[in-house]
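Quick log. Single chain, no ligands specified.
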Amino acid sequence: MGVINRTGGSFLAWWRLSQDIPGTPLPPGGNCREPYGIIRNYDDPQVRFATQDVLRLMKDNDQCVIRTGLYLTTELSSGGTIHNHANGLTALELNNLKNFLTDIKAEGFDVHFAYFPIHNDRPYTWSSWQAQRFAAHVNVIQQTRPIITSIFAPGEYLIELHNEGQGAGNQPQMVRYAWELYREYGNLFGIADTTGSSVGYSAMSAGLSRYNIQFSDYQNPAKGLHGLPQYQDVHGYTPFTSTGLLELNQAMIANGDTRDLIIGETYYSTYTNHVNAVLSQIAQLQRDVEYVTQWPLTPNNGCDGHVDVLPSKEFDYKTATTTSCRLVVNNGISCSESSWS
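-> predicted structure:
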């Protein structure tokens, strides 16, 4: 019988949504979050204050883990995307990241930090290997990991090298990218604080293919790999509303894989049928789930099909034995004083 070991939380990368601002037209393409990236804009006092307000509310509603990260591309930048220059992030962007993570820590959260290469920097689009784009990703990890580890102690953070970056059998460049990135990270830092590339379950067959390939590759000494990470990091929406977690559990049993899971992305807690389906499946697993971090998305899909909730205050991915957060005092300010409440 599986349980959720500790209380997770939500993904947080935007400080507001266009759909929530009366009279605000949607940006081109209908992406209601793109202008409002936190890290790119955190030197703006309005952005920092609003984000601190959201963090307090989330903590007051007993969330314990913030999943966040960097949207990166070598080609362009915008409100929520950072231009990964030849030298990586700018001094201002690195300082913004430091201040954002400092505020997360000050509220008593742990952090699950992920990297999101997008557009042509995502190997999903590649027909051949692109070494320069891969090197840019490694460089940003080398730039930013010291900031994470200077703020969070071991056990208070995990690093996800590539959001849903594990390829399936028909995605050879993504497969190579995932194991080469894991090898590079292991050579530089070891693997104790990483989940590797997360496995996305866009469909059940693709998810199982990705898991099985990663299970094999990460243990392949011929590729210079370092063994499996402590947890299997999986993301799932519709497949997890049915039997996706049970099928993954059976595949792990067949491989002799006894690791616990992290569910790094899934529907927001107001989708009650989905939450209940996930909790029911967890109770039938031959392993535990360390924590769940929900994505700010309901079946309504919002204005851009990817995000429609801010702030993410509800959180229901818990079982009877799930432990709560560590207690902190924030200069006498409780989350109940938030303007979002």
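The domain at 9-337 is CATH 3.20.20 (TIM Barrel).
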